[in-house]
Predict the structure.
Amino acid sequence: MVKSVGVFLSMLKAIILDFNGVILNDEPLHFAAMRESVAEFGIDLEREEYWEKYLPLDDKRCLKAICRDHSAHLSEAERTKALMRKSELYSQLLRDDFRLFPGAAAFIRAAASLYPLALASGARRQEIESTLESTGLRRYFVSIVAAEDFIRGKPHPESFLFALDRLNEILDSPQIHPSECLVVEDSVGGIRGARAAGMTCLAVTNSYPREMLQGAKRIVNSLAEVKLDGLQGLFEEPM
């Protein structure tokens, strides 16, 4: 029997999560570290500016964009020094206090029992691995794609597609297609990247207000309110 609405389009077969802003609540630490690292070059980085322009970017692209917008011309040595300084400051701020967003750990554990999980992030691999190992979450992820693994960051879809490619390489199962993936994101750029990859996106308002995340299929205030048995409904839409 064919339904006139709620037509079945695809099955949910894998979930790809962002890291900063979805799992780890460390964006304020990234801002503080970047703000201090660029201050010695006469750049006064404001919080609102960082959230609006630079939050989705990895460190290299973030520093480049900040310097461009503030007309600061750094030599290659100065860029390298600034990035090292930022990384050191971030590590000092984070230390062993891994602040996970409410519901993130429970969602990951429950979702991993039903679907293969991947992670696609502009964060450095060391930061990701350290957090996941320290919080006992590393074993739930089949593949992790970090800043070192791709060239074009979000909103480009490269990181999401690469994460899916790795999943398919590792899993001994039929190929998973982009239309069968759910991406969990917190940023505007991340949502755009997921959609460009042909994936369905669920957004959480950890970093941006709801009105800025309208490109996602569903928007939630916290992963604690997500019911796994309702995720398949995101893949069923009226024709």
In short: The domain at 14-25+99-235 is CATH 3.40.50.1000 (Rossmann fold).
